[in-house]
Design brief:
Blueprint lengths: L16 E6 L2 E6 L4 H6 L3 E2 L5 E2 L1 H6 L1 H16 L2 E6 L5 E3 L4 H7 L1 E3 L2 E2 H15 L1 E9 L2 E8 L1 E5 L6 E6 L5 E5 L3 E5 L6 H4 L1 H17 L1 H4 L3 E5 L5 H15 L11 E5 L6 H19 L14 H31 L2 H4 L2 E5 L9 H11 L7 H7 L25 H6 L1
Antiparallel strand pairs: 1-2, 3-4, 5-6, 5-17, 7-8, 9-10, 9-14, 11-12, 12-13, 15-16
Helix pairs in contact: 3-5, 3-10, 4-5, 7-10
Length: 408
């Protein structure tokens, strides 16, 4: 009679935990941890019950794209240390420790590009990227990325950093010895977007489950007579065991199978997925076209969004980097004349033509001199006196050079 019973019921041992022996105790990793345990380790949970941590943020394609693009772009930009001279000229300090660390190697095993990428990715995932400046007799020699916490003086907001030394003892570092690249408010965009990421992962799981086994949806096993819960559960388990490999199931005379047809359309599912992609990207300030969302993309708005990303998405991170490097690696005397900048011409190369055309229109009249434009591009001045000369408007009296005009 239905449900059919096997002569020797199958027994399975379900693994519910993993155990590792470590020095001084035992560590268990539960396969179904509670929300409280996840919160202890800083892993949030969504209302759908999907754990959301760094791993989940990296598994979600929109958040992974944002983290990868921002951190990789920061890593590939050259870093310049520029000093303003008394004459107003700009001089690049190629042998400054900042240029050596950022454009060569931060330490013997980490390149400057890899260091910036890892620090930026940590800030996007955890809220802060921290690195200790290793000094010998006051001279910076290496940069080591660290894990630590920040304490601020409630009266002055002066930060101190607590980390752990190699011997396990707590260590307190002053702000001048730490490079601190922090997200807005110290809150990681990946953590702020945890609910949106969880929803996106839930939609992926929903789609995967829906289209499993040739996309056949779930259905109903209908009995003509009333059955008790034990019999109903046995029938369901037997049904799942028979059809798990796509094989046909055999039903008894008093039971029938009715499939449930999905009411939502494919376009509704795709639109919901697209909305979640947009929601996640808002936390990171990334244009949708840069994450592969091209539904509303055109040639004009794609170029505009790329420029907006440089202005509003990437530039704040570059400013945080410049400030963090200046605080830890520039002396108070150097900060009066020296600053740190990133060379962004590589990522705005497509806009080079319009920028040069604008400079060409501005130079040669009463607005900008050739040396002023060269200063905007962080280039040295020309020794030619005509490079500092402003040309008057046609029909107006001569004005002399820019310096003479300013003195007048």
């Amino acid at each position: 009679m239905w449900p059919f019973q096997r002569s020797s019921p199958e027994t399975r041992a379900v693994e519910t935990s993993h155990v590792w022996l470590v020095t001084g105790g035992e560590v268990r990793s539960l396969s179904d941890p509670s929300n409280e345990l996840l919160n202890i380790f800083g892993i949030g949970t969504s209302p759908a019950g999907i754990p959301v941590g760094n791993r989940a943020a990296m598994m979600c394609s929109p958040s992974y794209s944002a983290i990868r693009i921002i951190s990789d772009t920061v890593a590939q930009l050259p870093v310049h240390v520029v000093r303003r001279t008394a004459s107003g000229d700009r001089e690049r300090l190629r042998d400054h420790p900042i240029e050596v660390f950022m454009n060569s190697f931060a330490n013997p095993w980490t390149s400057g590009a890899e260091f910036r990428r890892n620090m930026t990715a940590t800030a996007l995932l955890e809220g802060r990227g921290l690195a200790r400046v290793i000094k010998v007799r006051g001279v910076p020699k290496e940069l080591h990325q660290i894990v630590g916490t920040v304490d601020c003086n409630p009266q002055t907001s002066e930060p101190t950093y607590k980390t752990q030394a190699k011997d396990g003892t707590a260590q307190t570092l002053q702000y001048g010895d730490v490079i601190d690249v922090a997200a807005l408010g110290g809150d990681a965009p990946a953590k702020l977007a945890c609910e949106a990421i969880a929803m996106a992962l839930f939609l992926e799981k929903f789609g995967r489950d829906l289209f499993a086994a040739n996309g056949r949806p779930s259905g109903l096993l209908i009995f003509k007579a009333k059955v008790d819960p034990v019999t109903a559960k046995a029938a369901r388990d037997q049904w799942l065991a028979d059809v798990k490999d796509g094989l046909p199931a055999v039903l008894g005379g008093d039971v029938s199978y009715t499939p449930l047809v999905m009411t939502s359309t494919d376009s509704q599912y795709i639109e919901l997925r697209r909305n979640q992609v947009m929601e996640i990207l808002r936390f990171f300030g990334l244009p949708p076209t840069m994450a592969g969302e091209l539904a509303d993309a055109s040639l004009n708005n794609s170029e505009n969004m790329a420029r907006d990303f440089l202005k509003f998405g990437l530039s704040p991170w570059l400013s945080r980097w410049s400030d963090a490097l200046s605080r830890a690696l520039l002396s108070p005397a150097e900060r009066a004349t020296t600053y740190v900048t990133f060379e962004v011409n590589a990522i705005v190369a497509a806009d080079l033509k319009s920028r040069m055309e604008s400079y060409q229109r501005a130079v040669g009249g009463p607005f900008l001199t050739a040396n002023e434009v060269r200063g905007l591009e962080d280039r040295s001045k020309l020794a030619d006196e005509s490079a500092d000369k402003l040309n008057p408007v046609q029909g107006a009296a001569p004005q002399g050079t820019a310096k003479e005009t300013a003195n007048a």
